[in-house]
Structure formats: structure tokens, C-alpha cells
Amino acid sequence: MSRSPLITRTVPALRRAVDNLRKRKATVALVPTMGALHDGHVSLVRLAKRRASRVVVSIFVNPTQFAPTEDFGAYPRTWKTDIAKLAAEDVDIVWHPGVEAMYPEGFATRVVPEGPALAGLEDRFRPHFFGGVATVVGKLFTQCRPDVAIFGEKDFQQLRVVTQMARDLDLGVKVIGSRTVREPDGLAMSSRNVYLSPEERQTSTTLYRAMKDSARRIQAGEAIASAMARGAEMIEAAGFALD
Questions:
Q1: Which of 38, 41, 96, 128 is catalytic?
Q2: Residue 238 burial by CB count (10 A; 0-12/13-18/19+): exposed, middle or buried?
């Protein structure tokens, strides 16, 4: 029988809850999320349960990683469904702070990552993004003080940025990547998939086919640049505007 997780909304309450776990010699895994949970998130929780005796899941839609033109206000929020999913997985603690708890009045410190954050990939098009991610994840690590933290490989550059930050700042957290979970037709599970129209959802599988085709070409010895160019042609032919 599943049990409801303890829901904490202030740092002192979270710290007391984690300290109680530590008194029982528990190891702690953190799964950071922005909510709108799907089976990909569930796979992170299950990996966390294999790597530690107790699991904390954070649910916080982080405003500092959204640009003014992006979808912070529209980002899906499904609290009741999320808690039901986490209860079914026997999660121990849900850390659900408000913006005022994470960024109180007078907050003036930011983490500015380099290295993987300047790889010329997502950072080229969302230059604000990894600073927001590094700042909030740094806070989550110091608030929850986990032994391990689980991140999906779907956001691979983010995984590398967070791993580097934890190592560089000696945060004492082992960052573990988890394989991307996909729909039967190959589309990576994402909270934002609900934005797609039926036609867009059907077209979106081109992304997976292009990646698989590019990987096959590279494994067969084709130059990476050539294989990527062919993949880009396939994606653009389906109607995408490729960054």
C-alpha cells in the first residue's frame, strides 16, 4: 500500500525532515523536477530508490531559467496528479517551495557556469538558461544535502553542467544520469509535449528518426559533420525550423 510523501515548503521544515532520515542512517537521493510528472520522471525516481534508501523529489518551476519570451506562466502544473504518482512510488519527501522561499527579497547571488555551459549548443539560443539552472540546482543541493542526485539524459548539456558544478564547488553530491524514456514511436517524454497539436505530435517523431539515422551513419564511418547535415535536412524537410 502506497503512502503519501511528507510535503515540505520551507527550508527549516525540509532540513528537519532530512535530518530525521539521517538519524536513521539513511542515504538520500534527490530528484529535481518542475512537476507535470510523466513516466520519464517516474524512471528517475525508481533509479533514485536503487541508489539510496530514501528519496526526496523537488517540485519547483524555476523562473530564473525562463526568458521573458518563454513559457513560465503557461508551463503545465499538475500538483494533485504529481503527488499521486509520487505516493505510488513511495517517495519520502516532496520539497515544494514557493518562489519567495527560493529567491527571498534581497536575493543577490547567481552561479555563472562555464565549461559545458558554453559548448555552443543550447547556450547559443538560450544564453540565460544554464545560469538559472546552476543557481537553482546549487540551492537544491545545499537545501536537501543529498548523497546522490538523478537527472535525465534527455537534457544532456544540462546534465553535464550540473555534474561539473557539483564537482567544482565540492558540493558532496554524486550526479547520476538516467536514460531518456521515450514514447513507443520514439518521441522523448516531456512535460511540454502537451503543447503539440495532433499534427505536430505526428511530425515530431522525425526528430528521433533523424537521430537514429545520424547515429547509424556515424557508426558506419561517415564523417560526423556529413551525418549531422543529413539529419538536419531530414528535420527541416518535415517542417521544423532547426536551431
A1: 41
A2: middle
